[in-house]
Design a protein that fits this description.
The complex is a heterodimer of chains A (about 120) and B (about 110).
Chain A (H helix, E strand, L loop, with lengths): L4 E3 L2 E4 L5 E6 L6 E7 L6 E7 L2 E5 L6 E5 L5 E5 L8 E8 L11 E2 L3 E5 L1
Parallel strand pairs in A: 2-11
Antiparallel strand pairs in A: 1-3, 3-8, 4-5, 4-9, 5-6, 7-8, 9-10, 9-11
Chain B lengths: L3 E4 L2 E5 L4 E7 L5 E7 L6 E6 L5 E4 L2 E5 L5 E6 L8 E8 L5 E3 L3 E6 L1
Parallel strand pairs in B: 2-11
Antiparallel strand pairs in B: 1-3, 3-8, 4-5, 4-9, 6-7, 7-8, 9-10, 9-11
The chains are: A mainly beta (about 120), B mainly beta (about 110).
Chain lengths: ~120, ~110
């Protein structure tokens, strides 16, 4: 158990809909990262937040948005869903803000999103 | 932008055989990390390398960072069925986005 929690575990929805994925980082970790992993694919970095502020942006679509709240939990909002958005979405946390420090990332169990 | 590649994409070995996966970056890295993802699981951090030419060992796993800090390798000696999974490298530079490689999927036949 990494200490990172994600809800829900599974999500099935229809095209055009909007969903929210939730992540609670490890106690004390200020950084939260979101990744997308499509079937048998690598990890695509979406976005990073540090202590409530956006810190880095990756290949995140405009239909997707995220935020980190004062209690440090984070939510990833996916809207106007398409079939191709079906994937495993991971959240990870780490104690530091920038790459280069000892920046081990602790991954949550993931949310499997299926868009029908 | 920075690209991180890994070879091979897939590797099937007989239990007891050795296994090596290679990670190559298009740019010089400040550090590199390795993660393992078991089937149906989430990535788990294995190690971080920061120094040119650095070699680190964890039991049967040996990690190496190239002299030019643009490549890395993970070698497993005498594979076991518990080694099954996908091994990812992730590299980046201070203050910049980091990039995960596509991973090498290892199958170990008993």
């Amino acid at each position: 158990d990494s200490g990172v929690t994600q809800t829900p575990k599974h999500l099935i929805t229809a095209t055009g809909q909007r969903v929210t994925l939730r992540c609670s980082p490890r106690s004390g970790d200020l950084s939260v990262y979101w990744y997308q992993q499509s079937l048998d694919q690598g990890l695509q970095f979406l976005i990073q937040y540090y202590n409530g502020e956006e810190r880095a942006k990756g290949n995140i679509l405009e239909r997707f948005s995220a935020q980190q709240f004062p209690d440090l939990h984070s939510e990833l909002n996916l809207s106007s869903l398409e079939l191709g958005d079906s994937a495993l979405y991971f959240c990870a946390s780490s104690p530091v803000s920038v790459w280069g420090d000892y920046n081990e990332q602790f991954f949550g169990p993931g949310t499997r999103l299926t868009v029908l | 932008g920075q690209q991180v590649m890994q070879i091979p994409q897939y590797q099937h070995v007989q239990e007891g055989e050795d296994f090596t996966t290679y990670c190559n970056s298009s740019t010089t890295l400040s550090n590199i990390q390795w993660y393992k993802q078991r089937p149906g699981g989430h990535p788990v951090f294995l190690i971080q390398l920061v120094k040119s030419g650095e070699v680190k060992k964890q039991k049967r796993l040996t990690f190496q960072f190239g002299e030019a800090k643009k490549n890395s390798s993970l070698h497993i000696t005498a594979t076991q069925t518990t080694d099954v999974g996908t091994y990812f490298c992730a590299g980046g530079n201070y203050g910049q986005n980091f990039v995960f490689g596509p991973g090498t999927r290892l199958s170990v036949l008993p």
